[in-house]
Specification:
alpha/beta; TIM Barrel; eight-stranded parallel barrel; binds phosphoenolpyruvate
Length: about 250
């Protein structure tokens, strides 16, 4: 059975003063029945990991380079992120795919690098609005999933996030039936490729998750948690989502 995970992605938001939100969350969740993660900008990984070190909340990164070291100005390797205090790395977020032209092959290389560094990868997939309106959502997600993952996986070190691009930061959310359809297809695709261990892979939904809609989303079959953007910036909002996952 897949473990449950509430993951927050701060994106390019936050300076030192915002670490108070992480501290508030750590005060509220001294223990939890679910896994909890915050992915701040790279500049805050080390101080956040320090603040969260005695809490059940992990610290992660939002991207990495696929090489371990070398002449890649401005990039950060998975090993360096681990050294900074990260235990998870998000790969293939749609904003990276769009803003940095990251292909599925790039995402696969980065995911391999994350796993090689002993960290857990959260691999993101999801269709655009045009692709959904054309009736291609299932096909797009299926293809992204197959092309973005390594041939060999460790179920304890891999998480998949279904994030329809049109639902990210827009307040729009697919119907529960649409989420269920994609998640069932992802589980079937992963089982066909990796066998029974696919049952242990957490499948997250991401896209405008809020405390007010989290319980309904977590009640959908094969939804094992959420990847949360905007609502993870404030401890009170993210706490509501974590509590909904604990209760699910
Ligand atoms: C995200 O960036 O992964 C995301 C889901 O953002 P939001 O929750 O703000 O839609």
């Amino acid at each position: 059975m897949a473990r449950k995970l509430a993951a927050g992605n701060w994106k390019m938001n936050g300076v030192t003063a915002n670490l108070a939100e992480a501290a508030a969350l750590a005060k509220e969740f001294v223990a939890s029945s679910v896994d909890i993660l915050l992915c701040p900008p790279a500049t805050l990984i080390t101080p956040m990991a320090q603040i969260l070190k005695d809490s059940p909340i992990a610290t992660g990164a939002q991207d990495c380079h696929s090489n371990e070291s070398g002449a890649h100005t401005g990039d950060i390797s998975a090993a360096q992120l681990a050294d900074a205090g990260a235990t998870y790395v998000i790969t293939g977020h749609s904003e990276r795919r769009a803003d940095h032209s990251e292909s599925d092959a790039d995402v696969r290389s980065k995911t391999e690098a994350v796993c090689a560094a002993g960290l857990t990868a959260i691999v993101c997939v999801g269709e655009t609005l045009g692709q959904r309106e054309a009736g291609d959502a299932l096909k797009v997600v299926h293809g992204q999933l197959l092309r973005s993952l390594p041939d060999e996986i460790d179920a304890t070190k891999l998480v998949i996030a279904y994030e329809p691009v049109w639902a990210i930061g827009t307040g729009k959310v697919p119907t529960l039936a649409e989420i269920a359809e994609i998640h069932a297809d992802m589980r079937a695709t992963l089982t066909e490729r990796f066998g029974d261990i696919a049952a242990d892979l957490p499948l997250l939904y991401g896209g405008s998750v809020k405390p007010s809609n989290a319980a309904d989303i977590f009640a959908v079959a094969d939804v094992d948690g959420a990847l949360v953007g905007g609502a993870s910036l404030k401890a009170a909002d993210f706490a509501g989502i974590i509590s909904a996952l604990e209760a699910s």
